[in-house]
Write a structure and sequence with these properties.
Blueprint: H1 2-14, H2 28-34, H3 64-79, H4 84-92, H5 97-109, H6 116-127, H7 131-147, H8 154-160, H9 162-178, H10 182-196, E1 198-200, E2 205-206, E3 211-213, E4 218-220, E5 225-226, E6 231-233, E7 237-239, E8 251-252, E9 257-258, E10 263-265, E11 269-270, E12 275-276, E13 281-282, E14 291-293, E15 298-301
Parallel strand pairs: 1-4, 2-5, 3-6, 4-7, 5-8, 6-9, 7-10, 8-11, 9-12, 10-13, 12-14
Antiparallel strand pairs: 14-15
């Protein structure tokens, strides 16, 4: 049995990517062909400076998000030549944002018994076909860059922000879940939880422009719904009370900010534009544009006449 396993691994290494034409074929000569290190190379200016306000992909448009990421990757590789192969393999050798993202997630979430090639095919098959997810990815990139002062560039977010990566992996898992493919959906959830320390049930519905800031310790339950442009910091739980079944998790409106360590429990509504202070325990509805803090949470601003 051991010999069989060893042989299969060796064959997989020898034929890396051969079954997946959409995945990049990384070779040492490839980076040299891109000429990213030549200061006067035309390749360095082959992509015009991209207006970051146009990252959303519309029918007939150029993919501004992908062009911006490539532009930044080339600039970073020029500044740090030692990282040129890194940027080549993860960004510059790919034909699309979806291919690069599928590859990056596959490499991050694979292990000795779950090959990156298999994960790549699962991720790419969803990312390349689902228009809604394509738009959400770009909205998330812009949301992170606009609202997180620690984010220095789009390529920085794409490669290094585990909250962004966990959110995109969840989008694929949710699509599989909605198709009745619960086994791979749960598998992705499990690997994301292990690797990124972010546990989002594949049944949870998440909007666009999401920022999972720092992200460690975030838990989101099966029937939770999160609107657009929501910011969630680390160690936040959108969970149940443990007393009911069915629809049992929070519903978070657009533009909500949830501070670190907050616990929102039960099928409660958090109104649009509300802010939840760090460490709060929320068990009742929070009105739109209100600020809620404490354990148990109480209103301190915004719609301060509303009852919790």
């Amino acid at each position: 049995m051991a010999a069989c396993i060893d042989d299969s691994r060796n064959q997989n290494m020898n034929n890396s990517f051969s079954s997946y034409p959409n995945r990049c074929q990384i070779k040492n000569s490839l980076c040299s062909l891109i000429h990213i290190m030549k200061p006067n190379s035309s390749n360095l200016v082959s992509y015009k400076t991209i207006d970051s306000s146009k990252l959303v992909l519309n029918d007939g448009d150029e993919d501004y998000a992908w062009l911006k990421i490539r532009e930044e990757a080339k600039s970073n590789a020029k500044q740090e030549p030692i990282l040129s192969k890194y940027y080549c393999s993860l960004i510059l050798s790919h034909h699309s944002l979806e291919s690069a993202l599928a590859n990056h997630l596959a490499e991050k979430l694979s292990n000795s018994s779950l090959a990156s090639d298999v994960l790549f095919e699962v991720f790419f098959s969803v990312l390349d076909q689902d228009r809604e997810i394509k738009t959400a990815i770009r909205d998330d990139l812009k949301g992170v860059k606009d609202r997180d002062p620690a984010c220095i560039s789009y390529v920085h977010c794409f490669l290094n922000f585990k909250g962004f990566l966990a959110c995109q992996a969840h989008r694929v898992a949710h699509k599989l879940w909605s198709q009745g493919r619960t086994i791979p959906a749960y598998l992705i959830q499990s690997r994301v939880s292990e690797v990124f320390a972010v546990d989002i049930h594949p049944g949870a519905k998440i909007g666009h422009g999401i920022l999972l800031d720092h992200a460690t310790g975030i838990v989101i339950g099966e029937t939770a719904v999160i609107g657009d442009n929501v910011t969630i910091l680390h160690n936040v739980t959108l969970g149940g009370t443990g007393k009911v079944t069915g629809d049992r998790h929070p519903k978070v409106g657009d533009g909500v900010m949830i501070g670190a360590g907050t616990q929102i429990l039960g099928n409660v509504k958090i109104g649009e534009g509300a802010k939840i202070g760090a460490g709060s325990v929320v068990l009742k509805e929070v009105p739109p544009n209100a600020t809620s803090v404490g354990n148990p949470a109480r209103l301190v601003g915004g719609n301060d006449r509303a009852k919790m």
